[in-house]
Specification:
single chain; mainly alpha; disordered N terminus
Length: 335
């Protein structure tokens, strides 16, 4: 979210109570610790120390180093944010410097946090279990990586939620009607368009999760096992939540607090943009053997556009005047 003041520290009147501060700092430290195993593995792999790797012959050494370096830097950014969130008063930087990488991290981690437990349940019922290992990585690697991601995601999102509540409580606790009054018409239109795009892509992903094959290549159909269907269903659910949240915010007729639809729009749009718009399109570009169809590219592109529209609309909305009738930040309650 964009900062509303020129200050680089907490705004005047922010609620950084002792209880909130202690919880935020503990969650931040938990996220820092949870990042370490993944960062350690990635650093070893960048140095071509293939701990836990069975066979990486499908990738050249240059591609292997590049992929692991990029993912190392992505999680290192989350590590920095987690550390910032442990500092007294929260990150002493402009909010957008924290919000942009947190938006991306929210999208990447939320899908993992939801999909992996369901994949494990499906595996217990007899279907393919991704944590059982394959010809590429040893089984323990999946447990270390995805277990760390789940803990990291829960701790990081929890710490950031407290930070947002303490610093921008007057925004997130305002009624939707009051919040929408501050949103320029262009931003409301962008949110409505993004909601439509995400609803459409959610339908496509729900169909794929249920076994539909339209728009998929033969290679993607053969790869669509139970674990992949769980991923599609998870992404569809997150996109649907984002579409619903954006629709509520764009209409502006609800008296409920803005925090729930805003959180749904935040996490869902970030997940769609990160996993579909970013990783999906890049995977199509570099994965010549498993390149997607034009329809899949259209789905990924729609998710990317929706995410960018949400970012733009959110920036415009939060740069507007504070909603009238909202409680001052230091009197906000969480009820």
């Amino acid at each position: 979210m964009a900062d509303q003041s020129a200050s680089t520290g907490p705004v005047v009147g922010s609620v950084d109570t002792g209880r909130h501060a202690r919880l935020r700092r503990r969650l931040g430290f938990a996220a820092v610790v949870a990042c370490l195993p993944y960062l350690g593995l990635k650093l070893l792999w960048v140095c071509c120390v293939d701990v836990g790797v069975i066979d990486r012959s499908g990738l050249s050494t240059a591609a292997w180093i590049a992929v692991n370096l990029v993912t190392f830097l992505m999680d290192a950014a989350a590590e920095v944010i987690a550390y910032w969130l442990t500092r007294p008063g929260g990150p002493r930087v402009r909010t957008w410097l924290v919000a942009l990488p947190m938006w991306t991290a929210s999208g990447l981690l939320s899908a993992i946090m939801l999909a992996v437990p369901f994949q494990l349940v499906v595996g217990l019922l007899g279907s393919a279990n991704p944590s059982a290992g394959d010809d590429f990585l040893q089984p323990w690697v999946y447990g270390v990586v995805y277990g760390g991601f789940i803990v990291e995601g829960a701790a990081l999102l929890g710490a950031f939620a407290i930070y947002v509540h303490d610093r921008h409580g007057s925004v997130v606790n305002a009624p939707v009607r009051a919040f929408t009054r501050r949103v320029p018409p262009a931003a409301r239109t962008a949110a409505a368009v993004a909601a439509g795009l995400l609803a459409a892509t959610a339908l496509a992903r729900f169909a794929w999760a249920c076994g539909a094959e339209f728009g998929l290549t033969a290679a993607r159909i053969s790869d669509m096992d139970s674990g992949a269907r769980v991923v599609q269903a998870t992404q569809a659910a997150l996109s649907s939540a984002a579409a619903g949240g954006l629709a509520v915010l764009a209409r502006g007729r609800s008296g409920y607090r803005v925090r729930l639809p805003l959180a749904a729009a935040w996490v869902g749009s970030a997940s769609a943009c990160s996993w579909g718009g970013f990783l999906g399109l890049i995977g199509d570009l570099v994965g010549a053997d498993h390149r997607g169809s034009p329809f899949m590219a259209a789905v990924y592109g729609a998710e990317a556009v929706a995410g960018l529209l949400v970012l733009g609309a959110g920036t415009r909305a939060l740069a507007g005047k504070p909603p009238r009738g909202a409680a001052p930040t230091d009197h906000v309650t969480t009820h």
